[in-house]
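Sanity check

After download, print the first record. It should look like this:
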Amino acid sequence: MRRPSATFAHPLLLLLLLLASASAFPLSLYPKTPLIKWAKANAIRLNPSLTYSHTFQDGLRGIRADRAIPANTTLIDFPLASCLVVGDQQPCPMPEFVHPAYWESAKLHERLALLLLSEKRKGKRSLYEGWIRELPTGYDNHIARWSDQELKLLRDPRLAEEAMWQKSAIDAMHEGFTRRCPNITVTVDEFRWAMDSVLSRSFVGQIPSEREACDTHGAKRLRAQVAMALLMRLGRKLPRVTHRLSVMFPRMRKYFQGTKLSTQLLLLEPIIDMANHKTTAKTDVSYDKGRDRVTFKTREEWGEGEQVFVCYGAKASSSLLLSYGFLEPSNPMETASLHTLEAATYALAREKGVSEEELDQRISACEAKGTLKHLREALVSAEGL
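Expected structure tokens:
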């Protein structure tokens, strides 16, 4: 009897071919920049009119418009699978690096810092190696890294106190990690670098339906936990394959990353984190649940050669200096603390057209009501008194 000829390939072979083609780009089409090569290989779509990680005349790196960018243009679009992500209900994704019991007790920022350290130590084996090499090698500009003498120059005891608290808190985390994970050696400088990276570059995400209804039904929750345990283990063995599967089938990403049951995520978003801050910048970062992708879009025009900014939020100078290590010129959200800068309050009143007499009346009224103590601890916005 004649055996029929094979008319189809083995399903597993077809899957492997599909995976190979999902992120395959002809080498001739790759830009020369290693960062752009990495982005292409990780399904990150970049706008060809921009230069990423450009060094400007003031020495700062950022994103530059090589050509005029019209409003409502997408600048970056990438899958959540290409982000470093941790969740509040996430099992330990790297038990070889962090003891699971320690992971359970760690806060989101510490979890993300440890995940970043783990990926950095992998070197070229890491899916994020092309992006990690672009990160700053140090954060000496952060005031938590300033000396006591430098902090005195701030002439702001409250801000100096917050900086010292942040430094001591990070060092305490390092001591706790060293004590409870003795098999892994992480220097205090390494730990500080990772925490500084996370504190200045992370994004808190309330991803809709990340948890869905799994925690409301015991059987569904148990199935999700078992599936996560199996697929996270597969992800550690075959990270590139599982990453491609996560891009192709977004629902699987939550299982490979272990965030299926999480209600809150903390993310490091590659390349978007290279955009510098400007309070008035009209740009949006949004999440598309159906595609499981994050989009960075501008709502204003950018001229050729201009730096493209993103707004980190309405933050006062003290917050920018503490979290990011810089000050924004003419910051519209500037604040002054009455209990340390009372004289500046009268100067601000004059600038805004409020007479000293009227200001004195307001303060006296507060004092009569017994609220002056609270007023002295309040922050007065530069938007007006």
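If your output differs, re-run the checksum step. Summary of this record's structure: The first strand starts at residue 45 and ends at 46.
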